[in-house]
Amino acid sequence: MHFPAAVFSEKGKAYGVTLPDIPGCNTAGDTLEEALANVQEAVELMLEDATEKPVPSSVEHYKDDPVYQDVAWTLVDVDMSFVDGPANGAHESDAQ
């Protein structure tokens, strides 16, 4: 699943990445590549006891949110196979 990821950075400091669709899911790295590579582990730690998969939003969903005013956006591909249940918001008829 592709989730929007907000990338925060300050000159001379590490890069921070947060996935707004997974509350509390944040990671960082000394380089952008390192920060993005850490996303999968951060998601797995946040959702280790989850029974349902979160559903990704579009980047446009967050465009007017003041928290994300000065960020760069990217999409990250997260392997959600470690979560046993269906995606949040999925309808029972969708699973048939």
Automatic annotation (TrEMBL):
Source lineage: Bacteria, Pseudomonadati, Thermodesulfobacteriota, Desulfovibrionia, Desulfovibrionales
Chain segments annotated as transmembrane: none
Domain of life: Bacteria
Protein name as catalogued: HicB-like antitoxin of toxin-antitoxin system domain-containing protein
All copies of domain HicB-like antitoxin of toxin-antitoxin system, residue ranges: 3-86
Record-linked Pfam families: HicB_lk_antitox
InterPro entries listed in its UniProt record: HicB-like, TA_system_antitoxin, TTHA1013/TTHA0281-like
